[in-house]
Write a structure and sequence with these properties.
The protein has about 220 residues and is of the alpha+beta class. The chain is about 15% helix and about 40% strand. An eight-stranded mixed beta sheet has the order 2-3-4-1-13-16-15-14. It has an eight-stranded mixed beta sheet with strand order 6-7-8-5-9-12-11-10, covered by helices on one side. A hairpin with a 2-residue loop joins strand 3 and strand 4.
Length: about 220
């Protein structure tokens, strides 16, 4: 079973441009940097910006969500609006979320979730899948639980170490899309046991020095350590 989220990797065209967006406008700090990727501190997790130079690549046009405390929301909106970003807002019960696109067409959500300072964690990742039922079975066998379905069965929301949304191809809120060939890092008490649950349906399974890497049926990488 998966016990925690470690990172989300995004593919970017220019590292300097992407780094500037996330550090200057969203306030993330650089944790580590090479010629091929930049790792940013996103509270409890890491956001990885990766050039398309190796496999696994980061995800393309990935919609995902950061948690911020509610008392920062209005200031965040004002600062991003003044910086010239095109913002969209939706409410989920009493919680508001703002949406904007980063320079590489990833749809970033900042949602009122919990307390703290700044961005505290990644709370949602959206993956594009070809067959919703197949993808649901794969991820529920890894320990995710279905909590919500789209009215037209074009999407399903799963609760787990991170809220995972599986979308058949469509445009969601703020014209967001599910990511393709996304690389997501997870923690597990026993990575091999987690892989045993789904290995017969994975496209590939690779043993690493410190874990296991699984390629799911839709081409998303799950690196489990």
């Amino acid at each position: 079973m998966l016990s925690g989220l470690r990172w989300l990797a995004l593919e970017v065209k220019y590292l300097d441009r992407a780094r500037a967006f996330y550090t200057d406008h969203l306030g993330l700090a650089v944790a580590e940097e090479t010629d091929e990727e930049v790792r940013l501190d996103a509270g409890a997790h890491e956001l990885v910006l990766r050039r398309p130079s190796s496999v696994p690549r980061g995800g393309l046009h990935t919609h995902y969500a950061f948690a911020i405390p509610g008392e920062e929301y209005d200031d965040r909106w004002e600062a991003l609006e003044e910086a010239g970003f095109d913002l969209t807002e939706y409410s989920f019960g009493t919680a508001r979320s703002l949406y904007l696109d980063d320079p590489d067409d990833h749809c970033v959500e900042l949602g009122e979730r919990g307390e703290g300072n700044g961005i505290t964690r990644i709370f949602e990742i959206v993956l594009e899948v070809a067959d919703l039922d197949r993808a649901e079975r794969f991820y529920t066998d890894l320990g995710f639980d279905p909590v919500d379905r789209g009215a037209n069965r074009e999407r399903i929301r799963l609760a787990g170490p991170v809220d995972l949304e599986l979308w058949e191809p469509h445009l969601g809120l703020a014209d967001a899309r599910g990511g393709v060939h996304v690389d997501v890092g997870f923690s597990a008490d026993d990575p091999a046991e987690a892989v045993d649950r789904v290995g017969d349906r994975a496209r590939s399974v690779e043993t690493l020095d410190d874990g296991v890497r699984v390629l799911d049926p839709d081409g998303h990488y799950l690196t489990i350590r």
